Amino acid sequence: MATTNLFSDPAFKDGAFTANDPKVRAYALHKTMHAIDLGASLGAELYVFWGGREGIDTDAAKDPVDAIKRFRDAINFLCEYVLDQGYGLKFALEAKPNEPRGDIYFPTTGSYLGFIETLDHPEMVGVNPEVAHEHMAGLNFLHAVAQAWEAGKLFHIDLNDQNYARFDQDWRFGAQNLKQAFFLVKFLEDMGYDGSRHFDAHAFRTEDVEGVKDFARGCMRTYLILKERAARFNADAEIQGLLAEIQADDGSMDKFKGAYTAERASALKAHPFDRVALGQRGMKYEKLDQLVNELLLGVR
Ligand SMILES: [Mn+2]
Questions:
Q1: Phi, psi for 269 (deg, rounded to 5)
Q2: How far is CA 265 from the centre of its chain?
Q3: Could you report the per-residue pLDDT of 21-47, keeping only the tens digit for each?
Q4: Which residues are near ligand 1, the ion (C-beta closer than 5 Å)?
Q5: Residue 165 scores a pLDDT above 90
Q6: In sequence order, what DSSP letters do the residues of 125-157 get, joined into one string?
Q7: Ligand 1 centroid from CA 2, angstroms
Q8: Distance, CA of 88 to CA of 74 (rounded, Å)
Q9: What is the largest CA-CA distance in the chain?
């Protein structure tokens, strides 16, 4: 994976591809093409875009529709550049809601998934979701990853951790939200995700060199432990029995399943449902969730 820093240089203080100054937008393309050449020469197959300054501190400064068009023009231009050079590179767009800008455009992975379909070469572009960035927005990271996966757009992933509603913490993977980390690892392993497990994180600022190594080992070790726990979840007879019961289907609704037909719609509208009975069913999710806790706490 290769990337370009389009955020820390003061030249990019108003953004790169979305900057108001056309000279800055042109320089951003110039810098990115040179970096793409370097990445390709080193064998990179994927190019990540995180636009830390692509946003605003006041909406008086920039039209958000213009910003989207500028960003689209830049990505279209760079896709054509990659094709013209004969590089095999694909792009992955990384969302973040804010910091180091008051608001960053395309604040969530879902925003980028919508945007990608408007590009000239959507097949070349996917997403790079990051745990901390979705958690900053108070969102369920697994759901963002699942939507990207289902769309065939999970090109890369940034693993770290983050308490909700805080500044960007970039903590060691699994340091804060173990259960969310567990379901994420379980998803990646169950789906057979074959991309890199990329840790975009930092050690606590209290650490010396050994502490940084502890941090790096911790990221990898926690991932592998959770992978083993996911295998246990899949093999646990009580958990799987409960899931089979929860997801049971007696086939009585089969006649209503499938694509729309006028006959199916009429039959469904005429069918008598026992609404009260539907509402009275206990789902046993408390029991299931407690079994997950006990699995993660190492007592099963
Ligand atoms: Mn990242």
A1: -65, -30
A2: 37
A3: 999 999 999 999 999 999 999 999 999
A4: 130, 158, 200
A5: no
A6: EEE--BHHHHHHTT--HHHHHHHHHHTT-B---
A7: 12
A8: 18
A9: 70
